[in-house]
């Protein structure tokens, strides 16, 4: 069992690392953060807060104290700036760092360095001198030298707008505008320097720089670019690069990053778990890769996670239109019930089902799920038969919930609010 600290654990990258590693039997995940309001505390059973910012003078000593106190074996950075700082001090860390060498990180964090390094090797955007931009060069694209998630970028269509944005930030790079399709190429390089995986996906819809709708595309156009990049930089583990088509359809480099990408979940669900491969490689293991063939695409949206401040030992749950709705099992509710079983809570079915309840439960393979079954007549009131406390009550009928709430004073939930009862920490 190896302890792996994901830091910062609440970033989009940290959340994808959690999803990629949470069910690995040889890994115990730890989440680390520098900020109080952090999504990681809803996911990580082992959670460390109060880590100094990477810019703090005490960052490395304080981090080392936490690593030693908790017996952390590996750190998996979830932000470019964190990886850059940690790789600079790799030899001082009390845990092994997952990621590429510092020199590679320096060249990738700076887009200007990346463009200069590869300008004679692959196609990169033309960099304009602001003083020499003629009207026929517009539109142009403004981008910070270092950054991620489209922060600080802007499409500029005329000289007046260009002057305005450069007055706000004179350090912005003025680049050739690339009007075509945009792609991310997810890669894995092993400890021997071999490029073992190249998976390309089209960025079909982008929000805040994140590809929220993406699908795989055939990789023959992209693999030669990956091989050139891999020859001239030393990578270790997971990395990716982004390209965009110019006006004539040729692929030009946008950026290279030496970290996990949030939408790498697409290839993870095709069987290629790049973060897990990176950990195995760090352990000195030779890995094999299997990619499933069926077509797949991903669409991402905000997801709710809750923390309910209420301890209980019993769950009362209804059957009709609750556990089974429109002839189908409520799979989210069943997932919650199995989580309760795993944590030692008692599950009690309380229902007024008209008919052979045992046969219906067997029809849906639910007959072994309950510690107790209370089968009532239509005129009977559920609140009168709920004798165990502390408890929660789940029922689709408002009248039943209202009666139980008033008489017993316990929390009551409709089926659509079971999401707040689920505990996603792992």
Could you please describe the fold and organization of this structure?
- The protein is an alpha/beta fold and 426 residues long.
- The protein has four domains: 2-98, Rossmann fold (3-Layer(aba) Sandwich); 107-112 and 179-289, ATP-grasp fold, B domain (D-amino Acid Aminotransferase, Chain A, domain 1, 2-Layer Sandwich), CATH 3.30.470; 126-176, Dna Ligase, domain 1; 314-420, HAD superfamily/HAD-like (Rossmann fold).
- The protein has helices spanning 12-21, 59-70, 80-88, 102-109, 111-118, 159-168, 223-232, 265-268, 274-282, 331-342, 357-363, 398-408, and strands spanning 2-7, 27-32, 46-48, 74-77, 96-97, 127-128, 140-143, 154-156, 173-176, 182-189, 195-207, 210-217, 237-245, 251-257, 298-299, 314-317, 324-325, 328-329, 346-351, 372-375, 391-394, 412-413.
- A six-stranded antiparallel β-sheet has the order 14-13-10-11-12-15.
CATH homology group of the largest domain? ATP-grasp fold, B domain
Label the overall shape: elongated
**How many helix segments?**
12
Measured by DSSP, the beta-strand proportion falls in 15-25%
End-to-end gap: 15 Å
Side by side, the strands of the main sheet go 14-13-10-11-12-15
Helix content: 25-40%
CATH topology of the largest domain: D-amino Acid Aminotransferase, Chain A, domain 1
Task: Summarize the main sheet.
Answer: 6 strands, antiparallel
Count up the domains.
4
Radius of gyration: 27 Å
Mean pLDDT: 95
CATH architecture of the largest domain: 2-Layer Sandwich
Provide a short characterization of the protein structure.
This protein is α/β, with parallel strands linked by helices and 426 residues long. It is built from twelve helices and 22 strands.
